[in-house]
Amino acid sequence: MTNDLSRRIWEHREGVGSQFCRKYGVHRLVYYEEHEDISFAIHREKRLKKYHRQWKINLIEGFNPTWTDLYETWNC
């Protein structure tokens, strides 16, 4: 969850700000959600983290079937 997606994308791509991204080499943005209500966004993130891997893969493929790096098209 972030209030500045362009900054957060940069951090992930540079390997800063996230131990998970550094450890697993995660450098592409393949899925995101936007929410107006911060409490809903936090709740949604907590729920997503509890879901099984296959459910998350299905969610990503429904949103971005080719797993394209959305950083290239994100309006920073």
What does this structure look like?
The mean pLDDT is 88. The chain starts with a helix and ends in a 13-residue tail after the last helix. 53% of the residues lie in helices and 0% in strands. The protein has one domain (5-72). The chain is mainly α and 76 residues long. The longest helix has 13 residues, at 38-50.
Largest sheet: none
Number of helices: 4
Instruction: Return residue spans where pLDDT drops below 50 for at least 5 consecutive residues.
Output: none
| Percentage beta strand | under 5%
Could you give the topology of this structure?
Layout: H1 5-14, H2 19-24, H3 38-50, H4 53-63
Keywords summarizing the entry:
76 residues; mainly alpha; 4 helices
Offer a concise description of the structure.
With 76 residues, this protein is mainly α.
